[in-house]
Fold these 2 entries.
Entry 1:
Amino acid sequence: MITIIRLFFSLGAFFLVQSAVDAIAKHKSYRGILILCDQLKNEKDPRALFGLAKACRIRNAYLRDSLVEFLQRKDLTYRGKAAALESLGFQCDPRDLTYLLQIVQDKNEIGLHSIIRSGALRALGRHRSMEGFKYLMTRLPLGLEPERARAAIIDGLAASAGWQERRYLKEVIEVISDSLRDTNLNVRWSCASALVQLEATEKATELERSKPNFAEQDWPYLERKVHTLRTSSPNDKCKELQKNIEDLETKLKKLEDKISEREAKEKAEKQKVDVISSETKNEI
């Protein structure tokens, strides 16, 4: 596999490079990660930069350092830089928080159609830090972020909320459900996806009632999201967890029985040896 991937990179064709990085992203081997690090330094085709950066969503120290170096390049495309920021956020390295906050507040780092700003906002969510989460919570009101980037705030909050205290999770769900009535259609769609991602089953009815806020031809897709939300009950997960615990308890009980049986045999054998030793001494 690795040999074929190296061959694809050596040929240099864009579609072959894309196929190679997709294979590495699925493979997630150590050697594959080293190849990605090498390509982040040497890839010149601007069409390949987005797919290459997106494939780096594998948590690894070497890959993190290569992404930091990659982001300093001057020839990055908007999509390439946005994908690299998201991959850097995925590393969850505390050292990157200051940099991500700096990028997300830099007026010169917005990009065409707010592509870079959107990537930076999603990166803060993927970083899972409390500081990044709190920053995202303050950026949803109109006028604070470019209109095209506001949907990325919802995406970031959905990615981060599950890693915060439960009280923050409830707060995020309320904010997202309220934003189902936002003036921005992309924000509304991000909210629908976020509620499913956060398994906010209590908001299924509210999501269903928001259908008039979407185009009629999109209603079947929205209904599938409502169905997914209603069927992703936490009770099912609790039952599965309970079953796993019961299975573990059964295995533990069997192990304890085997240990007790073994100890009993060893004790019986020891007593037998003691009796034989005692009889031998008496004969002497």
Entry 2:
Amino acid sequence: MVTDDILLLGLDLGISTIKVALFTAAGDIVRMESDEYMIVPEGDKAETDPELYWSLVVRSTRRLLRDWGGRAEQIAAVSVSSHTETVVPLEESGRPARPALLWMDKRSQPEADELNREFGLQRVLKISGQPEIAPIWPVTKFRWLSKHEPDSVKRTAKYLLPEDYLLYRLSGRFVAEPSMWSSSLVLDISQRKWSPEMMEFGGVRAEQLPELLPSGTAVGCVTPACAAETGLSTKTQVVTGGLDQTCAAIGAGNIAPGIITESTGSVLALVATVPKPIFDSETRVPCHIHAVRDAYCMLPWNQTGGLALKWFKDRFAGDLTATAKATSRDVYALLAAEAETVPAGSEGLLMLPHLDGAFFPEFNPCARAVFFGFTLNHGRAHFTRAIMEAVAFMIRRDLEGLSRLGVVANELRVLGGGAKSACWSQIKADTCNIPVVVPAQGEAAALGSVILAAVGIGLYPDIPSAVRVMVSAGSPVEPRGANRTTYDAAYRLYVELYDSVKHLYPQSAKLAGLARCPTGFGEKQISSRDPASASNS
């Protein structure tokens, strides 16, 4: 039974931020605390002590409990939303067998090349749903470890991903759920079982992998050791969560076909819920297991979304940054206010927003940004609007790619920092000719995790029932027909512009001092699956 005194805790682990959020069982946020962290790669090497993640959870949780002032026993359950692909090897004792290999560690590029030669992209796609083979994927890291650190492998009792590690520190159990392991390449996403051939390639034994349970499964209570560290109650149940993008989709009400969520954070990412996996080597949209029971999701993304606007703000809007600080206003709101003074189409100014390569649908890690068509009459407001329109054009291309797979969007629900801008939402609606809705709760990933927690302890019979109570959508931003012709023409030019310059990118790379273009997408700076970072843009 749902009562007013039942509370739920969501942990949202991004690649640069940890958020701890307390919600009521009706989906209202009570309090949230967060901490930031930064891990800087050393060339191709990117490692960290996994204790870093846990120490931030402990610090933020203790601060939340202190400032909230309620009883820890009121928190009925806790669950986790997390980024993925970071490998955490643990000894039987639970101590790290070695530092965690971060998702952005690129030392396993040779192993990725081996995987491509031995299996081929089609076979890998059919098993894992991933249309690219790159060192970001954990199976390549497992093989790298087996080659270069056999002693570490011998000491490793369990290989965990970030969510699994937090679940272990909370409950003492080595458990995982399928959405987190979808992009590991070790999981057969159709069978929802470990792939023997991929385990053999990675040099991983089945007993070294955690127990797979569905998202929203209660696995036990907070351990006394965890309670002593965090201040949580040993009566609080621990529930499996999900990949951050799937949790954010749940938190925005995207649990069935027809609604697509879009996050304009540092990166751009879309999530489309589908009833069965779609493997298409031509369209090459990544397919993941959803945190929704028995569902899947298509997840097209690109490295630069709001990051393009942040780059522009940092370099060309120092005066607005100072004004925002002096007046306690949002600098992005000030930029958007300037952009609103410019008509649709930015008076002929167009941008390709690929500051760090392009993924779907261009698949060109060598791609770089372009401003096209600017004149003496264009000012900062035009450039700001052109950036916002360029992100909308990326979304439109993503939606068209999904449409070719039979995935139709009746409504776009927007998340991340970009969702704070009414101007940007209107541009997206006009460009894509689709209603855009901003969910009432901005912390969608944390809300999604507590929805899973609520279902896991039986407060609601299933995710749809919980979503009906706990998720509120705002009023739709309807597309304005007056801008349709302008945006259709600008979008066509956007596509043609890329096609016209793509052959020049290798020459550009040489001028930049690169011997050749990058070979994969492991070099992306911000994970596409990080709604936490999205809120900073």
